[in-house]
Structures are given as C-alpha cells and as structure tokens.
From TrEMBL:
Residues 36-252 form the Anoctamin dimerisation domain. GO terms for cellular component: plasma membrane. Residues 255-827 form the Anoctamin transmembrane domain. It comes from Echeneis naucrates (Live sharksucker). Belongs to the anoctamin family. GO terms for biological process: calcium activated phosphatidylcholine scrambling; calcium activated phosphatidylserine scrambling. This is Anoctamin. PANTHER family: ANOCTAMIN, ANOCTAMIN-6.
Length: 871
C-alpha cells in the first residue's frame, strides 16, 4: 500500500485508535468544490460518514465494527475530516491508488479504450436539416461529442496495449466509484467462528455508518473553478434538467458517463418510448377530434336525443323496487362519446401495429447500438459479481454443473422450494386481497347506484333538481366508484412492500413479483368494467343477483365505454399527480427543511462532501419504481386504447414532464447515484412484449364486447329484414329501436316490481330477445346469435392479422444493425491481435533464458571435445 508512512491515527477513542491507525485526520482547507484530499493530488473516490460516539458499550461495538472494515489492508487510502456543521459527524474520504484501480478493473472486467474507432460512421439522414435540428440538441460548445474507441477488458499485464494518455483520467470517476463500492461492499468487519460478516450495506443498516456515497463533481447551478473538475453535473443541469431545456434531446453519453450505464439505459428507453408515443398520440387525437366534429351528425346521437324517438322510449328500472322507469333521452349528454365508435378500429390497429410493434422492434436495434457504444455487449451474468447480501448467506456447498467446482450457496434444494412457495403464496394472498377489494367496490356500485337512482329521480327532492340535467345515476356511480378504486389501489401499493445470486437476478425476481401484483391492482377494475359489467344481467323479469342480494349492474344503453373511460382517466391522472408529489415534492421539502435546520453563518464554507450529505439518499430500488411507473402506463396506453383514444396523448404529455422531472430530481435533490453496469432494461423487456401481445386481444375484445360497434355493423350490412327488427336497409336509422328488447311490466316478480306504478305496460332493456307473446318470449333471438358470431369472427380475424403483421415486422427488422455488427467484429479482431502479440512476447521472454542455458551447454561440450582431440 502506497504512502502509509505519511499517515497517522483517526480521531477515534484512544483505546480503539490502534484499530484504524492508518487514517489521518485533516482540517478542511476552505475549498468548497475540492474533489481531492488536502494534498490536492489524491482524488476522492468515495465518502463514508459516521457519528463520533460516546464511551457507551453498544456504541463501542459500532466503533469495533467500523474499525474492522480493514479498508487500508485492501489498498484504499483514507483521510478523515470533521464536519463543519456538526461536531459529532466525521467524514472519511476514500482514495483508490493506481495499483488498486488496475487490480479491480481486471476483477470487474471493465472495458477500456485500445484504439480510436477507425470505421467510417454512417451519415445521418437529417444532416440536410442541421441548421434546424441543431437547436433541438444540447449545446455542442458545452457538451462536445466524445471520441469513439474500440475497447477491451482491462488487464494489468498488458498496460502497453491500452490507450492510456494520463493515468489520472484513464479511469473515469464513475468507474473509480464503482470499484470503491465493490471493495466496500465486501470488506469484512466481524468474524465469529465460521461466520464472516462483511459489507458496507450491513453497516449502514445497523447505523454504524450514517451514509456512504460518491461525490457530485460540483454544485448543480454554479460552475466550479477548481482544477481537475469536469463540471459534468453543472452541464447536465444546464442542458438536460433545467426547465428551459425541455425541448432538447437528452445528452445520453454524458448521462451514462456521470451516472453509469444503468441510469443511462433508463433515460434512453424513456426518451425512445416518448418519441414512439407520438404516433399513437396523433392517431388518438385525430380520432377524438373526428368524433367531436361528427357528434351532431351521428344517427345514434340524433335518435337518442330526439324527443320523438329517445323521448318516447321508456326504459325498465335498473334496480329493484325503488328505481323508476326512465326515458332514453336522459342519457343524451353521454351519447356524443358514442360517435367515436366508427373510427375505433383505426386507432387500435395503428397503435398496436405502429406504436407497439415498431416501438419494441426499433428499441431492440437502438439498445444494441447503446450496448456497443457503452461497452456492455459482453456484460454477461457470469461476469457480474455476486451480491454481497447473497455471499453473506452462503453456508451450504454444491457442485457447479458448469465448472464442476464446489461453491457456496445460501440454501439447499429443499430450502429453495420452501422460499419459492412462500414467495408465491405471498403474491397470491395479495392478489386475492385485490380481488376482494374489487368485489367490495362492485357491491358499493350496486348500493350507490340504487341510492342515486332513487334520489336523483325523486321529483320531491327540490334541492337535487339542478343536478338532474347533468348527473345520471350511471355517471354518479362511475365517478365515485373510480375515485374509491384509485384510493384503494394506492393504499394497496403502499402496503405491498415486502436471495437470488446476482443483483440482476434479485431485481428480475422482484420485477416479476411486483409487476404481477401491480397488474392485478391497477387493471382488475378496468377489466371488470370492460368484460364483466352488464354481461350477466339476464332480463328484468329474471335479474341476476350478486351474493344473492345485490342485483347485477347494467351498462348504459350505449355500453360501458363511458364508465371505462372515466375509470382510466381518473387512475392515469391520479397516478401521475401522486407520483410527482411522492418523487419530487417530498424530496424538495425534505431538503428545504434540512437546509433550514442546518443554517450557518455566511462566514462558514461548506465542503463538497458535506453539501452532498445534506441531499436526500438514493433509494436502493429507486430506478425500479421509475420503470414500474412507466410500464404500468404502457399497459394503460396499449390495453385499453380502444376505449380511451386520448390515453396516448395524456401519456405523451406526462412523459415529456417525466423526463425533465426525473432529471431535475437526481441532479439537484439527491446524492450522486452509485454508477452501475446494465446491458439492457432487464426483465422489463419480456414484460413489455407480453403486454403488447395481450393488448391485441384486449382491444379486439373491447371493440367486440364492450362497444356497440359489431351490432351496429351487423345491422348496417344486413340485407334481409328480420321480422322482429325495424330495419332500414343499409342505413343506421332505426338501430336504437332494434337494439332494445321489449318487456311486459306484468311479468315483473314481486321482489323486483317497482313501487311507483305509473300505468306503463311495456318498457325496454338492452338485449336481443324475443318480445312478449312470442312462443319463445324473452329467449335470445336469431339476431343475437348473428351478432355473437360476428363478434367472435371479428376477434379471430383481427388477432390473426395483427399477430401475423407483428411476426412479419419482427422478422424483417433485425435486432442488431449491420453497422454495429461490423464494429463488434472489428473490435474482436483487434482484441485477438493484441492478445496474440502479447502472448507471443511472453513466450519469447520465457524461452530466452532457456535458450541461453542450452547455448552454454553446447559451448562446454564443444570445448571438451576439443580438449580430447588435443590429448
């Protein structure tokens, strides 16, 4: 270890000072933006914070654990500094010497430059519009384009073959921090018999250390003047996180360089997803505008609102006893939304084919480009180090089927089965809890619909008279039930918070479990409205009851689309508002309170490490919840777009804010994120594929079963007139009358007959059944079976066409661009050449002494032979 002769003991209790006697204490040199030790030479790669403790027994144990970290023995150099704001706080600055960096760069397979990229890059098709497009990119004078290099995994023995200009900047700060954290996460602090405890994570959880984090390189809003500071945080804020830069493309290379590949790939995916949303947003907005413009000319709207048609159609009560008869034209306010139906298939096909299939296929290509540019092509599972939490629990041995070597595992096969069973049982329990909440909300719908139906149609309640024109029982029930459903969803999300080998395995396992829960939590109420509500109601004389007490609720005569749209709008809007409060407002308020509580006089200068300590700590699964939020949104946009064409528009607007809000949050309100490697978006990729496949079926079923589109098309294209349907050949006139069956009020049962007897002899209800007096009265008629057959044929044809199109597009669009394949081949070739030359030199070095010895032996033999000849 270098420079141990210049260090003294840390500021620890005297009886424990010998345990960490290589950590010098230094006074702060009043350089607030300094990123170096007090000598101005050694760079700070990591910061540890602990609280100076009193001489208490349990606190002595903390000091004992801290000094057992043995960081100096692992090659790290430390320097301790007392806090400017709090005398009890101590900051330990960690520096990684060159030899240690080289060692762990090889251990972590970090890829570094070997040669500048000599392949000609393809020219952009937008180069002719550069005078316009340049304004939508970060300022090149501030963020210049980085030189492209061919890279190879670092090896200490082949330093001469790597492209090293300066040792101090050869490994980026993100690489150095990653290597420092690797050491810290495996530093032992206690050994009891065969049990070894190690890892900074355990020490943080136990309160031994208050914090551990890499440093931001400067203040986000002030450019540093310190030598050796790249000011990357300031550049990111100015060209990425600042509100004034909302229209600019993201500087992904700088994001990756500063925060690591894992953060970079997230923002790359989010930006790509937002761009591809534009297609679906344009289609959805066009569909909405078309429906709005044609609502006045829609035959459906005219007939519903016409006093001579809709005003003369008496509808049957939708609940027992207390509900009254009502006129069809009372739903006139909702009928314009039905004008959207003729164009619903277009946004579905356009969105599913273009915005989903194309998005997923082109994302694979773009991701392949990023994998190459960011050196994660060969970031394989066997190269990823095991999680320290996993290693700490490894107490059993098993033979690795690949290597044949015995290795430690945390549990046996039986133990693994038990853990899997517990995990599955936990997920199933929460899913059943969600389903129970859906049943409870359904019961609420039935009870509240009965209440609203009774009160809003009671002419004696004068105070509710102004509401009757605008509020229908269906609308009142839908809005209140959607709000309650949203509250239940958010509460269950909060409650649902609680050992695979690697960190990626751990996150993938958590991803699948959490998404399954969130899928059921967010979408179950929407699936109920779309595919269950109003489907099992029978007819007024024989209604179907839930739990033997509550009569199943019916859809509006125009279908359940309005209620489904209301549910989606409330959940999507409420979720976006709640997430912004939780992710942005709360950290900002916490930082504001922290700054107010630690306010000091203007004469004190706060160092860089203490400024960062006052920021909010980064959550271990912060990025996981960002992905989850966007994937849930992706589900809303794709699964139910047929019922809510404006969903892509709302998602696009939300994402434009989401990118900048997330950028502002991690740049200004949080400590620097620990840089991590990532090859792709992980388990989210197959989840997106699964949602896209499911979206085809759900949208086809929404059009077939939830909307009134198929019955209207069957009616329109029916050339033979049904004897029980008033049909006007090849027109939609008369459809309203044909879609409502007739019921004789004398056939009400005593339990369902309304109290208010107004002398009405017949009423209408939504179904296709034979009228009273027919030999098969109240049974489904032939028209009903024709509609069912048309619905099934529609679903089968649409699904096959869409899936075939998806398959063809997936086949035609290669996952890896040709140019990237060529660059990968070139890089592998150069790596092989370097390895061959190096191995050849090593062999030559080893053979030289042997050759010299052989030559000496030959010379001796020749000399002796000459002596024999002389004799």
């Amino acid at each position: 270890m270098a420079e141990t002769q210049d260090v003294s003991c840390c500021n620890l209790p005297t009886e424990l000072s010998d345990d960490l006697c290589f950590c010098p204490q230094a006074e702060f040199n009043n350089k607030p933006d300094s990123l170096f030790f007090n000598d101005g030479v050694r760079r700070i790669d990591f910061i540890l914070v602990y609280e100076d403790e009193d001489k208490k027994e349990f606190e002595k144990r903390h000091t004992f654990q801290r000094r057992k970290a043995s960081l100096m023995k692992m090659g790290m150099e430390l320097e301790a500094t007392q806090s400017v704001l709090d005398d009890k706080l101590m900051f330990i600055k960690v520096h990684m010497p060159w030899d240690v960096l080289c060692t762990y760069a090889e251990v972590l397979h970090i890829k570094v430059p070997i040669q500048p990229n000599d392949l000609a890059s393809s020219s952009s098709p937008w180069r002719f519009f550069s005078c316009i497009t340049k304004h939508f990119y970060p300022n090149e004078e501030l963020i210049s384009k980085e030189t492209e290099y061919f890279t190879a995994p670092f090896e200490k023995d082949r330093l001469d073959y790597f492209y090293i200009k300066e040792k101090d900047i050869f490994f980026t700060p993100a690489m150095r921090s990653r290597m420092a954290y690797y050491i810290l996460s495996r530093a032992p602090y206690e050994i009891r018999g065969n049990i070894k405890k190690f890892g900074i994570t355990k020490l943080l959880d136990g309160g031994v250390y208050k914090a551990a984090y890499p440093l931001h390189d400067c203040r986000f809003n002030v450019k540093s003047t310190e030598q050796g500071c790249p000011n990357e945080r300031y550049l990111l804020y100015e060209e990425w996180a600042h509100p004034k830069s909302f229209y600019k493309m993201q500087p992904l290379d700088l994001i990756r360089k500063y925060y690591g590949e894992k953060i970079g790939i997230y923002f790359a995916w989010l930006g790509f997803y937002t761009i591809m949303l534009t297609l679906a947003a344009v289609v959805g907005l066009g569909c909405f505008i078309y429906g709005y413009k044609t609502q006045e000319t829609s035959t459906w709207s005219k007939e519903v609102c016409d006093p001579q048609i809709g005003g003369n159609i008496v509808m049957c009560p939708q609940c027992d006893k207390f509900c009254k008869y009502w006129r069809l034209n009372t739903t006139c306010e909702l009928s314009p939304s039905l004008s959207l139906l003729p164009c619903l298939f277009f946004p579905v096909s356009a969105h599913v084919l273009a915005a989903v299939t194309l998005f997923l296929e082109f994302w694979k290509r773009y991701q392949a480009e990023l994998e190459y540019e960011w050196d994660t092509v060969e970031f394989l599972e066997q190269e990823e180090p095991p999680r320290p939490e996993y290693e700490a629990k490894c107490s059993y041995e098993r033979k690795n089927p690949v290597t044949g070597v015995k290795e430690k595992v945390p549990y046996t096969a039986c133990g693994r089965c038990i853990r899997v069973s517990i995990g599955i049982g936990t997920v199933l329990f929460w899913i059943l809890l969600i389903l129970a909440s859906i049943v409870a909300i359904t019961v609420y719908r039935l009870a509240v619909f009965f209440t609203f139906s009774h009160r809003l149609r009671n002419q004696d309640l004068k105070q509710l008279e102004p509401l009757k024109e605008y509020v229908t029982p269906q609308m009142a029930t839908s809005v209140t039930a959607s709000l309650i459903s949203f509250v239940v969803i958010m509460i269950l999300n909060i409650l649902y918070e609680q050992l695979p080998r690697t960190k990626t395995d751990y996150e993938n396992s958590l991803t699948l479990k959490m998404f399954l829960f969130q899928f059921v939590n967010y979408y179950s109420s929407c699936f109920y409205i779309a595919f269950a509500k109003g489907k099992a109601v029978s007819y007024p004389g024989r209604p179907v009851y839930l739990l033997g007490k509550y009569r199943n609720e019916e859809c509006d005569p125009g279908g359940c689309l309005f209620e489904l749209t209301t549910q989606l709008a409330i959940i999507m809007g409420g979720k976006a508002i709640w997430n912004n409060i939780q992710e942005v407002l709360l950290p900002w308020v916490k930082n504001l309170i922290s700054r107010h509580c630690t306010r000091v006089g203007s004469e004190k200068v706060i160092p860089r490490w203490e400024q960062d300590y006052q920021l909010q700590p980064v959550s271990k699964l912060g990025l996981f919840y960002e992905y989850l939020e966007m994937v849930i949104q992706f589900g809303f946009v794709t699964l139910f777009v047929a019922s809510f064409p404006l969903a892509p528009v709302l998602a696009l607007v939300n994402n434009l804010f989401e990118i900048r809000v997330d950028a502002w949050k991690i740049t200004t309100q949080f400590r620097r994120v620990m840089p991590e490697k990532a090859q792709d978006i992980g388990a989210w990729q197959p989840i997106l594929q699964g949602v896209a496949i499911l979206a085809v079926a759900t949208n086809a079923m929404i059009i077939a079963f939830t909307s009134d589109m198929i019955p209207r098309l069957v009616y329109y294209w029916s050339f033979s007139v049904y004897p029980y349907v008033d049909h006007y050949n090849n027109t939609m006139a008369g459809y309203i009358n044909s879609s409502l069956s007739i019921f004789d009020t004398r056939d009400f049962t005593n339990s369902s007959r309304p109290f208010a007897d107004t002398g009405i002899t017949t009423c209408r209800y939504r179904d296709f059944r034979y009228p009273p007096g027919h030999p098969r009265q109240y049974e489904h008629n032939v028209y009903y079976w024709h509609v069912v057959a048309a619905k099934m044929a529609f679903i089968i044809v649409v699904e096959h066409i869409v899936y075939l199109t998806k398959f063809i597009l997936s086949y035609m669009i290669p996952d890896v661009p040709y140019a990237v394949k060529e660059q990968i081949k070139r890089e592998k070739y150069l790596t092989q050449v370097i390895l061959h030359e190096t191995n050849l030199k090593l062999v030559t070095k080893r053979l030289k002494p042997i050759a010299k010895d052989c030559l000496k032996e030959t010379e001796v033999k020749l000399a002796m032979e000459e002596m024999d000849l002389d004799l």
